[in-house]
Specification:
11 helices; alpha/beta; Rossmann fold; 8-stranded mixed beta sheet
Length: 288
């Protein structure tokens, strides 16, 4: 009996209380958290650029964890995971596959955001049998128009945030109108709800390597997404400055039978600004 099995007690459905764990595979120790009822197909969350385990909005995770086994993880070289961040999205997808197999899962659902959505696409194209359902938010396809401009926008907003002593995500993820500013502050505050056992921050080098990988992905040959037959839910705000909203429409056109939700008057973090609307939609989609 391993340590996990001996921990009897109620099912944890609050991300703030999810235990921090590690699993080793291919010479890398992957940091992850899991919560929600075990059994059934787990929902694996693929996180955004510069993010660690601490960057998932509990208002998205917790509703999903009420009825699903949820797994969040730091890919190689990110946060508390060891190893080096690779400079291509496809290599990141290979690492994610290694992590999922190390946990012994044969079939998963994916919930992805931004960079995570790119990694998810690469993974599903290479290992279609692994994935049952796909949620792609705030993301775009390989070779997507203006995707390589993410780098300039990111550095500009990181600088703006530094000058105003605020969190860069408030600029990158949310509009700068009254509603957007309020939503940004509320989002950043929610990310602080976990007080114990927080993750290591991402290193500058890891962040820069991720940006390099996104640039390469943006300038790559467009992938053939017609082979994606998994039920797919795509969502974004209508004014995404990081990964242009038009790329969500592009994904929707190219993935047969996919569903698209665009939230008005919101940016890259539209699903976080409208979490009260989006979380139930995601839960319903995964339960179908």
């Amino acid at each position: 009996m391993n340590k996990h099995d001996s921990l009897k007690g109620p099912v944890i459905t609050s991300y703030a209380k999810a235990p921090a764990r590690t699993v080793s595979a291919g010479g890398v120790s992957y940091a992850y958290r899991e919560l929600g009822p075990k059994g059934g197909i787990p929902v694996v969350f693929f996180v955004h650029l510069a993010a660690t385990l601490d960057n998932w909005d509990p208002r998205i995770i917790d509703p999903v964890a009420k009825s699903h086994h949820v797994i969040t993880f730091d890919n190689q070289g990110v946060g508390a995971s060891t190893g080096q961040v690779p400079d291509s999205i496809e290599a990141m997808a290979n690492d994610a596959y290694t992590f999922i197999k190390a946990l012994g899962h044969e079939k998963i659902d994916i919930f992805s955001f931004s960079l995570g959505g790119m990694v998810a696409q690469a993974l599903v194209l290479k290992h279609p049998g692994l994935v049952r359902k796909l949620v792609l938010t705030g993301t775009g396809p390989r070779g997507g128009k203006d995707l390589d401009k993410v780098i300039g926008t990111t550095y500009y907003d990181v600088l703006r945030a530094t000058l105003t002593r605020s969190d860069a995500k408030e600029f990158l993820f949310f509009n700068r109108d009254a509603e957007g500013k309020q939503a940004g502050r509320a989002f950043v505050k929610r990310l602080q709800e976990r007080t114990a056992d927080r993750d290591a921050p991402i290193s500058i080098k890891a962040f820069q390597t991720q940006l390099k990988a996104i640039k390469k992905w943006g300038r790559g040959t467009p992938a053939d997404l017609s082979s994606i037959t998994q039920p797919t839910l795509i969502a974004n705000g209508d004014n995404d400055r990081m990964v242009p909203s038009i790329l969500s429409e592009d994904l929707h056109r190219r993935i047969n039978g996919s569903e698209l939700i665009i939230y008005p008057d919101s940016g890259h973090g539209g699903i976080f600004q409208f979490h009260e609307k989006f979380a139930p939609v995601a839960v319903e989609f995964l339960a179908r």
